[in-house]
Specification:
Length: 338
């Protein structure tokens, strides 16, 4: 672990003035004198302890006043400050009553100890968990190397990797909470150097690996997430979330799905269906959404939507099991909506 200095940011503006790089840029370029943000520190210190990230300065944004609030009203919807911890979100009554899929996603993420440390801003900006990307011995595309080790049909350990949109990097995004945030059409508020705040939909916040191998999000170095906002649900909005893991106590997702529906009786008026751990970034399944719209919510239609979602799957050598896994959890989540 390298030596670094520590800076306590006093405000959003102060933090932006101090920072000069993102973790993603550092992992790719390894430039000297990097000053990077740390919130809960769970992901940042993992990289530093591995020796893959050697910042000169850590800017602690965890204690910036005002970024730790959760509020709800029917006009603005649910506003979650970037420094709200996953534990705070998990126990919030408004989230449990109005955003069931988010409540379920947060409660199934990591462990209670990790949820106490982790912030929502850090969660959506964390990097993927591909073991080659996280290994100092493997110089993959995302670390300015010349190959993808996971893709190799014989030697690639790709059990946990992408089955959709895997033409370039085949990692899957680590934030299972983003699956639910995207299904609720959340927006991310980002403050920049010019003092302006931009509002980005979750769909546009993530960057597909084929578009840019360096970044998984659009975040640039002089930008900070301040809030995540979910629109107020309608009277007939219902939702559900399912995450499949290898170990129930805590684990990264093998596959997860969030379903948010506008319903009329037992009919689906419109659907928002997002898959996690299927593609390099959370994947909105337009195929499943279309298959459900205007249809009754029953086992037959839910199974047809799950089939449609998997029509675009192209598994790698060792992750073919994910196709039936997703078919099963998509169908179940549609039938589970409350
Ligand atoms: C064993 C284990 C299991 C886990 N399981 C899950 C899981 O199942 N599902 C899941 O979703 N997560 C899971 N996590 C992730 C974890 O819960 C944290 O959310 C995540 O590691 C980062 O949160 P953090 O607040 O510590 O971020 P940090 O480590 O502080 O930061 C992460 C990244 O975000 C940037 N950043 C932080 N805040 C901001 C901001 N406001 N603006 C701009 N950039 C910012 C940092 O510079 C850094 O690049 C797991 C982690 C571990 C170690």
């Amino acid at each position: 672990m390298n030596k670094f200095s520590w800076y306590e940011a006093k405000s959003v503006e102060d933090a932006i003035q101090q920072v000069n790089s993102t973790v993603s840029e550092q992992l790719y370029e390894s430039t000297q004198d990097a000053a990077i943000f740390k919130s809960g520190g769970v992901d940042v210190f993992d990289w530093i302890k591995e020796g893959l990230l050697k910042p000169q300065k850590i800017i602690n944004i965890r204690n910036i006043p005002g970024l730790d609030k959760i509020s709800f009203n029917t006009k603005d919807g649910l506003r979650i400050g970037a420094n709200v911890t996953l534990a705070e979100l998990a126990s919030n009554q408004e989230v449990k009553e109005k955003y069931m899929a988010l409540h379920q996603a947060v409660n199934h993420a990591a462990t209670p100890q990790l949820r106490n440390m982790s912030t929502l801003g850090g969660n959506i900006a964390q990097r993927n968990r591909c073991w080659y990307f996280r290994s100092a011995e493997h110089h993959c595309f995302r670390k300015a190397g010349d190959r993808c080790f996971a893709r190799h049909s014989e030697t690639g350990e790709n059990e946990n990797h992408a089955i959709i949109d895997n033409g370039s990097c085949v990692s899957v995004h680590a934030s299972s909470i983003s699956t639910a945030l995207m299904a609720f059409n959340a927006t991310v508020m980002i403050s920049g150097e010019d003092g302006k705040t931009k509002k980005i939909s979750m769909d546009d916040f993530f960057v597909r690996a084929g578009q840019d191998i360096v970044m998984e999000t659009i975040l640039k170095s002089k930008e900070i997430i301040t809030e995540i906002i979910l629109p107020a649900p309608g009277k007939n909005t219902r939702s559900a979330y399912i995450k499949q893991v290898a170990r129930e106590s805590y684990d990264w997702s093998l596959g997860d799905v969030a379903v948010v529906m506008e319903t009329s009786g037992n009919t689906c008026r419109s659907a928002s269906i997002v898959l996690g751990a299927a593609a390099p970034v959370p994947f909105r399944s337009g195929q499943a959404e279309k298959a459900m719209e205007g249809k009754d919510i029953n086992a037959q239609n839910a199974a047809a939507a799950a089939e449609a979602a998997m029509s675009v799957a192209r598994p790698l050598s060792k992750n073919g099991y994910k196709v039936p896994l997703f078919k099963s959890i998509i169908k179940q989540a549609i039938l589970d909506i409350t």
